[in-house]
Specification:
The chain contains 9 helices and no strands. The chain is mainly alpha-helical. Helix 7 crosses helix 9.
């Protein structure tokens, strides 16, 4: 039995300290997944926090057929998708994203190029359908295998590959159109 499985068993038995360990372990990944989907740091923090609350409240339903991280990513993606649907305006504010992802201070020209590229990519990504956007983000940003992506988004592995293929093609087309 691996460390996560033992920790989950303790958390399911009511050990809040064990769940706190899981929160610390997955906190950063959950936050960045929400940030990539929502493109807003404040919303991402709220969604990440709610994902852990939901996970704690539903921990007794976790059976271990998927990895804990996969289950938690699914909760996060569902919450982020709900947040996106509830927004009155499209996601276009990329101000928080480069700052959160950078980790160091790049040269001003590099920052400008990166910001413009990130803005164009996020705008194009926001135009994708929900499944394509989710699969592309999970594959490229979180580098998850298709098997885990399929579990998270609720489709077959082959369908996840198809969503990724068409999602990348659509991103490429949209970014090329935006350059012209």
């Amino acid at each position: 039995m691996d460390e996560d499985a033992r920790t989950i068993q303790r958390a399911q038995a009511g050990d809040a300290g064990a769940f706190d360990f899981l929160v610390r372990k997955y906190q950063r990944q959950v936050y960045f997944l929400a940030l990539k989907m929502l493109n807003n740091a404040e919303d991402a923090e709220e969604v990440a926090q709610q994902a852990f609350v939901n996970a704690w409240n539903s921990l007794d339903t976790f059976r271990g057929t998927a990895a804990f991280g996969t289950w938690l990513y699914r909760i996060t993606m569902n919450l982020a998708a709900t947040r996106l649907r509830s927004r009155a305006r499209p996601v276009n504010d990329t101000a928080d994203l480069p700052e959160a992802l950078a980790g160091k201070t790049p040269a001003p020209l590099d920052t400008l190029i990166r910001d413009e590229t990130a803005r164009a990519a996020l705008n194009a990504c926001n135009e994708l359908g929900d499944k394509q956007r989710q699969v592309v983000l999970l594959r490229i940003v979180h580098e998850l295998p298709y098997s885990e992506i399929a579990e998270i988004v609720g489709c077959s592995e082959q369908t996840a590959k198809v969503h990724f293929h068409y999602g990348v093609e659509n991103l490429r087309k949209r970014m090329m159109d935006n350059e012209q």
